[in-house]
Specification:
- This protein is mainly alpha-helical and about 230 residues long.
- It has a two-stranded antiparallel ribbon.
- The longest helix is centred in the middle third of the chain and has 25 residues.
């Protein structure tokens, strides 16, 4: 009797299941924001791509989210950096600081370009976006430390980092360095441009912090086997 009552109540009893609700059912297709996809002639498409294009003409497509854009000036890494730099939800201020930073880098590099002799001008990078990405790549650590408990003690164990974690640490170090170690009369965009220019040539405090992390991981390499035990 009890089993039959449980069987009747089972469809209505709440379950602890993680469900992510979506306003679109599976019949809707994902949006395609890349313009170059629509410019490919049909003669160059594969059979699968032709089928996908025909489906898009018949089935409804989901609305693109706010973060998706087809602009050629869109940079996901730069947008992530702006979001990390933002405080109190003031994204307009964060974007304006980033724009001023890029302008400051451009001015400094163009001034350096005109002052340099002819044979050294080709070595000077004047594109601020290329300098930003180069600085970010130089600041990414290769290996990190994780606190693992063994026998009642905590050990700092060196572990390899994922690409997202490496990028997060590089951005966090740059922003923290510019906020905490700048003169109170120095604007944030000035300090940020100085750090990015220094990091692009593998100099500055952020690069030192990365090397210190690598040295600590090298010193604790004896505990590396604790990752699996």
């Amino acid at each position: 009797m009890a089993a039959s009552i449980i069987g009747l109540l089972k469809p209505w009893t709440p379950r602890v299941v993680l469900v992510r609700w979506n306003r679109y059912n599976p019949y809707y297709l994902e949006p395609e924001i890349r313009k170059e996809v629509y410019n490919i002639p049909e003669t160059e498409l594969t059979a699968e791509e032709k089928e996908q294009r025909e489906l898009k003409a018949l089935r409804p497509i989901k609305a693109a989210t706010n973060g998706m854009t087809s602009s050629v000036f869109s940079d996901p890494v730069l947008s992530k950096f702006v979001n990390m730099m933002m405080k109190g939800g003031d994204k307009v201020l964060a974007k304006s600081i980033m724009t001023q930073t890029m302008e400051n880098i451009k001015r400094k590099q163009v001034e350096k370009y005109h002052k340099a002799p002819e044979e050294k001008r080709e070595e000077i990078e004047c594109n601020p976006y290329a300098i930003f990405h180069q600085a970010l790549d130089n600041c990414k650590p290769v290996i990190g430390l994780a606190s693992i408990q063994k026998g009642g003690k905590f050990y700092q164990v060196p572990i390899p980092l994922t690409d997202n974690r490496r990028r997060f640490l590089a951005m966090k170090w740059i922003i923290t360095e510019c906020r905490e170690n700048k003169h109170r009369r120095t604007h944030l965009y000035e300090k940020l441009s100085q750090e990015l220019l220094a990091a692009s040539v593998k100099e500055g405090n952020v690069i030192k912090k990365k090397h210190e992390l690598h040295k600590m991981a090298e010193a604790n390499r004896a505990y590396a086997h604790y990752r699996w035990w």
